[in-house]
Design a protein that fits this description.
By secondary structure, this protein is of the alpha/beta class. The chain contains 6 helices and 9 strands. The chain is globular and about 50 Å long. The chain binds ligand NHR and glycinamide ribonucleotide.
Length: 201
């Protein structure tokens, strides 16, 4: 049984999808902590509701990123993670941080990577008139949104779509995709090897 630590910054709907999959047995693991860099976000309540330790490490209380990350690493390691899940976590992580957990961190990003790394992906898709959009789960490396892609889901962009409607469609896909990827990692189907995402059947 794998230990999972989830990092969030907000609503935590992807966290909820993973909690649900742990609770219904689809994921062979347990969430040992949920950590938010923002206090009072709804994702923390979701964790508490499921009796998962819900912790806050407010990045604004640190003078620089390194001090924040040192404390974050110490907090995470208290909960002995085999897998670190970024679920709407909004702080860029240093290469030192990534190195400490290399091959054990995954992120979900709302675009069809390698397109649209970074922020405001739905807006950029609309601005460019793309007819296709989606979401990607990848292993986290030092290169922002640039680590090896594990799996993607596509959606169609309709003429009347807005940032908000795209966000809704994307999240629907994410709530199926992310628990699936976490399940694969926890049962050993998926691993990080030589800088790549590798599957065994
Ligand atoms: N860190 C590394 N090293 N590699 C990745 O692939 C990472 C990462 C940290 C977060 C998530 C990512 C996304 O899916 C992620 C991937 C935040 C920003 C950002 O600009 C960019 C990408 C992602 C998350 N953050 C601002 C910062 O200064 C703060 C923005 C805010 O607080 O609203 O850290 O999109
Ligand atoms: C998700 O759609 C995720 O792809 C995106 O934020 C949302 C978080 O929702 N992630 C990023 O933009 C990372 N920069 P949630 O808090 O409800 O899971």
């Amino acid at each position: 049984m794998k230990n999972i630590v989830v990092l969030i910054s907000g609503n935590g709907s992807n966290l909820q999808a993973i909690i649900d999959s742990v609770e219904n047995g689809a994921i062979n693991g347990q969430i040992t902590a949920v950590i938010s860099n923002k206090p009072e976000v709804y994702g923390l309540q979701r964790a508490e509701h499921s009796h998962i330790p819900a912790l806050v490490l407010d990045h604004r209380e640190f003078d620089d990123r390194n001090l924040f990350e040192e404390e974050l690493i110490s907090l995470i390691d208290d909960h002995k993670p085999d897998l670190l899940v970024l679920a709407g976590f909004m702080r860029i992580l240093s290469s030192e941080f990534v190195q400490h957990y290399l091959g054990k961190i995954v992120n979900i990003h709302p675009s069809l990577l390698p397109k649209y790394k970074g922020l405001h992906t739905h807006r950029r898709v609309l601005e460019n008139g793309d007819t296709e959009h989606g979401t990607s789960v990848h292993f986290v490396t030092a290169e922002l949104d640039g680590g090896p892609i594990i799996a993607q889901r596509k959606i169609t962009v309709e003429a009347n779509d807005t940032e908000q409607s795209l966000q809704q469609k994307i999240q629907q896909q994410e709530h199926q995709l992310y628990p699936q990827v976490v399940a694969w990692f926890c049962d050993g189907t998926l691993r990080f090897e030589d800088g790549q995402a590798v599957f065994t059947d």
